[in-house]
Every structure is written in C-alpha cells, then in structure tokens.
Write a structure and sequence with these properties.
mainly alpha
Length: 188
Amino acid sequence: MIDEELEDTDEALEPCVQSSSSEDEDDVEETEVEFQAKGAGDSSNFLNFTGPPNGVNQSAVPDINAESSPFSIFILFFRQVFQIILTKTNHYFHQYMSSRTTGSISAQPSDITIEDMYTFFGLVIQMGQDQHHSLKDYWSREEQYCTQFYSNIMARDRFFHILRFLHFENNNNPPNHDDPDYDRLWKI
C-alpha cells in the first residue's frame, strides 16, 4: 500500500521531457522540463500552521525596523553570547593578575568592554578576508604590509591582550577527568 502511494507520488513528480534539437550539430540541445500536475484524487499531508503572524514581533524587539543595520539584526542573536565571552574573559584576566605576585596594579590594562569585544571579533572576521603571514603584520608599518584599517580600529596591544585572555568558561570548576561523561571541549 505504502509502496503504491510512493510510486504514485514519484510519477507525479517525474518530468515530461521535451527536447528540440536544431539541424546544426554545433548547437547545444535544449531540454524543457514540465512537471505533471497532481491528480484530482491525490490527498496531500501538508500541515496547516496556525499561530502568530509572520514578521518581527515589535514588542520583543522595539528597536528593529526596516532601516535597521545588519549589525543590529546580528546582535539580536548573539548579544548574550558576547556578554558571556566578555564576562569569562575579564574573569580569567583577574584570575591571572591575582595569581601573579609581581607587578603593580596601576600598570595592568583596563577591563575589556563590550565594544572592545565587538571590535575584536569584527577584526578577526576581517582578517579572514585580508590574510597576512602573522598577526603582527596587520599592524605593521612596512610598505608591503601596511593596512591602516587595523591600527585605526584597535591598538595592536589591546587586540593581543584580548586574544591572550579570551575565555569561554570558568577555570575554577573543571570537570572530573574520570567522569564517563567528561567532555574534552568543556572550555568552549
């Protein structure tokens, strides 16, 4: 029974091929494809969806409209992710600084802001389009490497500071290595 229904469905989708070839052999053969319409007795199992209307729910995102930038749409999906990365990165930086016994507190860099995090990831994405041999080359002033864009957007030392302390998880609570559910990728 099911096989017969599948065969009927397959027949309904089989194309009717009409080919026309010209007298000249150099011309490419054109193939026209038309699909057969379903028979009158065919029943479809399409789901009828009911629910709220399509589009943007203005009460959930009142600041999104037709003139919104692509970044504002992007950030709707990733705002919480960036906030988690920012929190974990700053936490790891403070852990590192408290574990050091030398160095003055006044010399330490300031905490990373959410704008720094957006800029950092924006630069990383741009680096995929503008590839150099090493990361320092993006801020190089040598003629063959010089790209003012990177130094105008973020200082090299700030970029490397964020890269060094970039963290996705807290180091204070590592999982047990003997646990059968141990995930080796727990840090990300």
